[in-house]
């Protein structure tokens, strides 16, 4: 009996670990279909985000995406750390979670560990996007320009609320420095 209890605990622990490492979108959230990586490629500015330790305190955050010959996507995240007085940069790699025309990817900046990256709202002209992680504690609003019109921001915030994100915790990201 003791052995079966241990086996159940190990199975439960393994299941929880796998769930924590999920790269799938949160329940009830569908990534954009008809996605075109070539159009999405290039530089995006972070307009707002739910705060996380890997971006805590950074301003002027941007992300650049570039398709690679092997089907992966190179990712370069960059932001200014005012406390240190310098730019910080992280390079990663993204892979599609299946169909490359569905905006559901997994991104890694640290070896074999991946997180979800799901474009859930996308401007038809690829000028702005809303991206969710693997749960509702990850959300980014991105744009090709350093500012978004207020009406677009309001629509994205309303959509985020409808999808179950805590928009009261979103922080606006300052974009005042040159890209230097």
UniProtKB/TrEMBL annotation:
Lipidation (N-palmitoyl cysteine): 21
Principal cellular location given in the protein's record: membrane
GO molecular function: lipid binding
Lipid sites, type S-diacylglycerol cysteine: 21
Coiled coil stretches, renumbered: none
Pfam families: Lipocalin_2
One CC-aspect GO term: cell outer membrane
Gene Ontology BP term (one): response to stress
Residues spanning the membrane: none
Keywords of the record: Cell outer membrane, Lipid-binding, Lipoprotein, Membrane, Palmitate, Signal
Subcellular localization, as worded in the UniProt entry: Cell outer membrane
Membrane topology: Lipid-anchor
Leader sequence residues: 1-19
InterPro entries per the UniProt record, alphabetical: Calycin, Lipocalin_ApoD, Lipocalin_bac, Lipocalin_Blc-like_dom, Lipocalin_CS, Lipocln_cytosolic_FA-bd_dom
Function per UniProt: Involved in the storage or transport of lipids necessary for membrane maintenance under stressful conditions. Displays a binding preference for lysophospholipids.
Family, per entry: Belongs to the calycin superfamily. Lipocalin family.
Subunit structure: Homodimer.
Name under which the protein is recorded: Outer membrane lipoprotein Blc
Natural source organism: Pseudogulbenkiania ferrooxidans 2002
């Amino acid at each position: 009996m003791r052995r079966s209890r241990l086996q159940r605990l190990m199975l439960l622990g393994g299941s929880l670990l796998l769930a924590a490492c999920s790269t799938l979108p949160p329940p009830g959230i569908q990534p954009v279909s008809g996605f075109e990586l070539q159009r999405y490629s290039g530089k995006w500015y972070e307009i707002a985000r739910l705060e996380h330790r890997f971006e805590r305190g950074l301003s002027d955050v941007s992300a650049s995406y570039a398709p690679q010959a092997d089907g992966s996507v190179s990712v370069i995240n960059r932001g200014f750390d005012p406390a240190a007085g310098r730019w910080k940069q992280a390079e990663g790699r993204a892979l599609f979670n299946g169909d490359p025309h569905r905006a559901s990817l997994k991104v890694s900046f640290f070896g074999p560990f991946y997180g979800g990256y799901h474009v859930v709202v996308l401007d038809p002209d690829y000028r702005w996007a809303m991206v969710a992680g693997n749960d509702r504690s990850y959300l980014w609003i991105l744009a090709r320009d350093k500012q978004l019109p207020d009406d677009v921001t309001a629509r994205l915030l309303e959509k985020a609320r409808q999808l179950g994100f805590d928009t009261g915790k979103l922080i606006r990201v300052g974009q005042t420095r040159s890209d230097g």
